[in-house]
Write a structure and sequence with these properties.
9 strands; elongated; alpha+beta; 2 domains; DNA Binding (I), subunit A; 211 residues; 6 helices
Length: 211
C-alpha cells in the first residue's frame, strides 16, 4: 500500500504511550502500519498546541501540506494519495513505560562521542574511527562505558598499549555512561525532530529509545 524512497519510510518517528510519555523510536514504515490498523494516532505540534489525527484525517492534512508546505515534509506515496511522514505518534492503549538502560553498543559510543576522536578532537566518518580502551586490556582495562572512547587511526597507533599519560596524550572528555540515548540526543540537534523535545522530559531520559 505504501511506497516511497528509503529515506521517507526509514525516517524516525517518536512513539508516545497513551499518557504522552516517550516509549521508543520506530520507522515511518512501522508507524504507518500502526496508524492504518487504528492502533495509534498522529500527534502534531501546531503553534505550541497538540493536534491529534487518525489515518483519514491525516490524509486531509497531508493534502493541504502537499499544496502549501511540501518542502517541510517527507512524503509517502500511496495508490491514490500522498501522506506526509509524521514525526510523532501516540499509542491508543499502551500505558506502560519500559525502564531499561542505554544499550552499550558501538553505535551509541560513536553517538556519545559525536564521531570525534577523544584524543585529537577531530571529527571523522564512522568508517575512519575505532574504539580505544583508555586503560588497555593488557593492563586490566575492561570493556565498558567509562573505559571506551572513539579514537582515530593515527591516535590509536600513537597510543598503542599504553595509558594516555604514558603516550603524552590527554582525553578531551572523560568517558561516562550516558543517562539518555546518545542517538536521540543527535536527532534533537536536527530541526526536523524539533517537535520531539517537549515530550522527552528529563524524567524519561533513561527510557530505551530504539530505532
Amino acid at each position: 500500500m505504501f511506497a516511497a524512497g528509503p529515506s521517507a519510510l526509514d525516517s524516525n518517528v517518536l512513539v508516545l504511550n497513551k499518557h504522552y510519555a516517550a516509549v521508543r523510536i520506530i520507522t515511518a514504515r512501522r508507524a504507518m502500519c500502526m496508524l492504518f490498523k487504528a492502533l495509534a494516532e498522529i500527534i502534531s505540534v501546531e503553534d505550541d498546541r497538540y493536534a491529534a489525527y487518525d489515518f483519514e484525517s491525516w490524509r486531509e492534512v497531508s493534502e493541504f501540506r502537499a499544496r502549501y508546505e511540501r518542502e517541510h515534509h517527507e512524503w509517502i506515496r500511496c495508490v491514490r494519495f500522498e501522506l506526509a511522514v509524521p514525526r510523532i505518534i501516540r499509542l491508543l492503549s499502551y500505558d506502560r513505560l519500559p525502564r531499561t538502560p542505554v544499550k552499550f553498543t558501538r553505535r551509541n559510543i560513536y553517538a556519545r562521542d559525536r564521531n570525534r576522536c577523544q584524543y585529537c578532537g577531530k571529527k571523522f566518518p564512522t568508517s575512519e574511527l575505532s574504539l580505544d580502551h583508555v586503560v588497555p586490556r593488557s593492563r586490566g582495562g575492561e570493556t565498558h562505558w567509562t573505559n571506551i572512547v572513539c579514537c582515530c587511526v593515527r591516535c590509536n597507533v600513537r597510543k598503542g598499549g599504553r595509558l594516555p599519560y604514558e603516550a603524552n596524550m590527554t582525553l578531551i572528555v572523560e568517558p561516562v555512561k550516558p543517562k539518555r540515548s546518545p542517538v536521540v540526543t543527535l536527532h534533537l540537534t536536527s530541526e526536523k525532530y524539533a517537535s520531539w523535545k517537549q515530550f522527552l522530559d528529563a524524567a524519561y531520559w533513561n527510557v530505551e529509545l530504539r530505532d
